[in-house]
Design a protein that fits this description.
Elements lengths: L7 H9 L4 E2 L2 H10 L3 E6 L11 H12 L3 E6 L21 H18 L10 E4 L1 H4 L4 H7 L6 H6 L1 H8 L6 H4 L1 H16 L3 E5 L3 H15 L4 E5 L12 E2 L2 E2 L9 H9 L6 H8 L4 H8 L5 H18 L1 H21 L4 E4 L6 E2 H7 L6 H9 L3 E3 L2 E2 L6 E2 L8 E5 L3 E7 L1
Parallel strand pairs: 2-3, 2-5, 3-4, 5-6, 9-15
Antiparallel strand pairs: 1-6, 7-8, 10-13, 11-12, 11-14, 14-15
Length: 414
């Protein structure tokens, strides 16, 4: 669809690659153009930190605020007790109220880096859906809200259908999740005038439910806008790395390792990631993304510095770049660190064989023992998965392998 937006926010969404779909382009654009639009994203408290996979949502809210809107970060203190079944093969483990509160406390830390929470018209709001969900009367809720939902329609949603098609159990508890999320949108509109819900494209059905419910109960017009579900160019889900989830909280993923994740972006993703995860001008993002050969490495450092500055501060980004230069440039050349050069025909290469070929272990058995006894590290982070395979994406920049504290080697593409 070709649509030329009037509002700055919709222009940003379209030109930077944030937009997957919208329930009413014209209606939302008009509302944004006319005044301050409150918009929300819900975050369930299933871990103590969000990871890189949530960063596109956080950046959406940041752009909403920067272009004159009012972001609402909704903590799922209530919905986390149920668990979102969307596109999952099994039921989420149920958390205790104390675990949920601890997770919310951890998750809140990151939002203050990206949003300004204050009492101004565009000041961000931090809310918790336990505020209205915890006190619900079941019979009243069934009568007032449940009657607006068609089970036939709910069964047709892809997130539910895919689970049933695979003959995997979907509990009644989880089936209620989409009703509760729709009710969140209704309550946010009723209490705070919230006009738009953002989410990944897997949330489309849940968002449409909320819009429909609000229209039926309050006769209010509200909107939904979804962002693409991101995978890297080699097909991996965004937010994961060779060492597990790339958390946004510094106590769960060091700023250096966070920086390194972005520095290791594959060439094909650089321009797209610059547009989504930094505030660098689109034209400059395109220029940097089009660089080739060794020049693209400078673009990756620009990406890593910009994303790390937003998440952890400029000092952390500078320190990470300095550490990386020390480890790889000086370590690889000045200190004569042993370097294993591999070609495309060697890939994928098992981490066990990488340790053997780099001279850090005499045999595969010794390498596995080193990993199992926590004596192996990759890019200075503990290595726990002896089954890890290194591909071209993982080796887009040199990787440092360590056996114990004093034996190191680099592995890189030749």
């Amino acid at each position: 669809m070709t649509y030329h937006p009037k509002s700055e926010f919709m222009h940003v969404m379209m030109t930077r690659g944030f937009l997957a779909d919208c329930t009413d382009y014209q209606g939302l654009d008009d509302a944004l153009y006319k005044g301050v639009v409150p918009g929300y994203i819900g975050f369930d408290a299933t871990a103590k930190s969000l990871h890189v996979g949530s960063l596109i949502q956080i950046m959406t809210l940041r752009w909403l605020q920067k272009t004159g809107g009012k972001p609402i970060t909704l903590m799922g203190g209530g919905t986390t007790k149920v668990g979102d079944p969307s596109f999952r093969a099994d039921e989420r483990p149920l958390l205790t109220p104390d675990q949920i509160d601890d997770n919310i406390a951890g998750i809140k830390q990151v939002f203050a880096k990206y949003l300004s929470y204050d009492d101004t018209p565009t000041g961000a709001m931090m809310l918790n859906n336990a505020e209205w969900l915890d006190g619900l009367n079941y019979l009243d809720f069934l009568r007032d809200i449940g009657r607006h939902f068609s089970v036939n329609r709910m069964l047709s949603f892809e997130s539910v259908k895919s689970r049933i098609d695979r003959e995997q159990s979907l509990s009644f508890l989880e089936f209620n999740y989409m009703i509760l999320q729709a009710y969140d949108f209704l309550e946010l509109n009723r209490r705070y005038g919230c006009l738009v819900q953002f989410g990944g494209s897997d949330q489309w059905g849940n968002i449409v439910n909320g819009i429909d419910l609000t229209r039926r109960v309050l006769d209010h017009q509200i909107y939904g806008l979804t962002t693409p579900l991101l995978t890297t160019s080699d097909g991996k889900k965004m937010g994961k790395s060779a060492n597990g989830a790339v958390w946004l909280n510094a106590d769960m993923r060091s700023p250096y390792e966070f920086w390194q994740f972005w520095r290791n972006t594959t060439d094909a993703d650089v321009g797209r990631f610059l547009k989504l995860y930094t505030e660098i001008d689109v034209e400059e993002c395109d220029r940097l993304g089009a660089l080739e050969g060794s020049e693209i490495n400078a673009a990756k450092i620009t990406l890593a510095n910009a994303v790390t500055t937003l998440c952890h501060g400029a000092d952390a980004a500078e320190a990470a770049e300095a550490t990386a230069r020390e480890v790889f440039e000086k370590g690889g050349v000045g200190d004569d660190l042993p370097t294993l050069v591999v070609g495309p025909d060697d890939l994928p290469l098992s981490i066990v064989q990488a340790f053997v070929r780099a001279g850090l272990a005499n045999s595969g058995k010794e390498a596995k023992r080193l990993i199992s006894e926590n004596g192996a590290r990759m890019d200075d982070q503990p290595l726990t998965d002896a089954g890890l395979m290194l591909d071209a994406g993982a080796l887009s920049s040199p990787v440092k392998l360590s056996a114990g504290k004093k034996r190191h080697a680099l592995i890189q593409m030749g």
